[in-house]
Amino acid sequence: xxxxxxxxxxxxxxxxxxxxxxxxxxxxxxxxxxxxxxxxxxxxxxxxxxxxxxxxxxxxxxxxxxxxxxxxxxxxxxxxxxxxxxxxxxxxxxxxxxxxxxxxxxxxxxxxxxxxxxxxxxxxxxxxxxxxxxxxxxxxxxxxxxxxxxxxxxxxxxxxxxxxxxxxxxxxxxxxxxxxxxxxxxxxxxxxxxxxxxxxxxxxxxxxxxxxxxxxxxxxxxxxxxxxxxxxxxxxxxxxxxxxxxxxxxxxxxxxxxxxxxxxxxxxxxxxxxxxxxxxxxxxxxxxxxxxxxxxxxxxxxxxxxxxxxxxxxxxxxxxxxxxxxxxxxxxxxxxxxxxxxxxxxxxxxxxxxxxxxxxxxxxxxxxxxxxxxxxxxxxxxxxxxxxxxxxxxxxxxxxxxxxxxxxxxxxxxxxxxxxxxxxxxxxxxxxxxxxxxxxxxxxx
Length: 445
Description:
Amino acid/polyamine transporter I; 18 helices; about 0% strand; Transporter; transmembrane helix; transport
């Protein structure tokens, strides 16, 4: 892949974790846990991350390093003159659609960030926070300008390449994110009545146990680790030969679970201590959190810090989504990286305009019972990602030679005892579980 390579193992792990820990862990995990019984959801989320999403992450790392290229050319190289490269094409298209609506949420965060600096977010009632969120997302000029700024920030980093762009940014952002999250969690836990939120997150209430909760947790495990979209195939193609793939995947999965739990510890103790409802849904971060921070000493500062964090996390995911598409089109020709980054970024911005306007000007446009924004999310989350993950597990299990797969995993590995268990999980367990998600999401079960 030309001269592009990670400078260190830590750089790769932080960038891969940054890709995984975006809105998935910080925005989506708390609201999914909040609407699905807290601890039960967390329990299954951890279980499925370890048993299913984690093994697929290792599979993507294996394919990526073996192919040493973008997602499409990697499959062409490993399985020439077959239909398998379609996995890379699906992944690239899904990445484009995800980034088109992801950048809209990135824009909302920028809007809130500016308001937190001007003091507009302090001193409102909970109802006023809800009304403020509604008015921001319905304002066409504001959402489009904010979305454009977010895309320009993303392009500016990705055009710099792997070491100079993505790795350098992730090296500073990810540790900052962890440290600030711990500070926020400590602050939240010190509130009177906070223990109710801790119980909600850690003591299982079995009345919430259901097939649907399990399926939603499985879905969250996928989306939180960015598997199924070939992001990790692209990232792993920049790895050198002596990196331990199993250990790297374990580090990324562990960081992801840790940040999800921390997000829960920031949000739920404060929600319960201040008498809010955990099942606020997708507006949890934007509606409840400003109201929660408003009740804290120095709340304005904490809210500003939290929004900066959320922006960091969203940007690191956006970098990886744009990188897949740029890598696929430049095919290792580094001189093309800069112009292609800007060109592709501009196209993705244009594709995202209907999503940005779907809460205002275009809120009457409904596709399959969903707004344009929700439809784009549904299309990628419930169809694109599981389909990609299913094909990747079948590719490793039934197309690649087992000895080739094991040979790739043995490079840099200190132990090999886990490989047969992993191989069973990827060949049988993962496809079975994903098929069940599919059937459930189309109401066929």
